[in-house]
Amino acid sequence: MDKSKQPFRKSKRSFRRRLPPIGSGDRIDYRNMSLISRFLSEQGKILSRRTNRLTLKQQRLITIAIKQARILSLLPFRNNEKQLERVESIPRTTGPRTKKK
């Protein structure tokens, strides 16, 4: 087949391949807090596989490690820093409540 008769193809773009976030020496474990904390959002949610650029197996292992760390109280289930600040700023009354007539 002649090159002139081939269907139109997109030109191949050169792109730099990103390095995986987990190196070959990193061990995915619930005790490795520096590794685990990279895969959590500010609210304490587990980030998606696409966001993390992980393989399916790595994402499963990270998810299991995060859940184990949460159960053992190494990580909070939710990060409630904003809620705590808001609750602390509200003044509390200590006296008994009276009904308004």
List the helices and strands and how they pair.
Elements: H1 33-36, H2 49-52, H3 56-71, H4 81-89
Short summary:
With 101 residues, the chain is an all-alpha fold.
Description:
Helix content is 33%, strand content 0%. It is elongated. The chain has four helices and no strands. It has a domain at 33-72: Ribosomal protein S18 (30s Ribosomal Protein S18). The model has no long low-confidence stretch (mean pLDDT 79). The longest helix is centred in the middle third of the chain and has 16 residues, at 56-71. The termini are far apart. With 101 residues, the protein is an all-alpha fold. The protein has helices at residues 33-36, 49-52, 56-71, 81-89.
CATH superfamily of the domain at 33-72: Ribosomal protein S18
Tell me roughly what share of residues is in helical segments.
25-40%
Order of helices and strands: HHHH
Mean pLDDT: 79
Question: In total, how many beta strands?
Answer: 0
Low-confidence stretches: none
| Derived structural class | mainly alpha
Overall radius of gyration: 25 Å
**Could you describe the largest sheet, including whether it forms a barrel?**
none
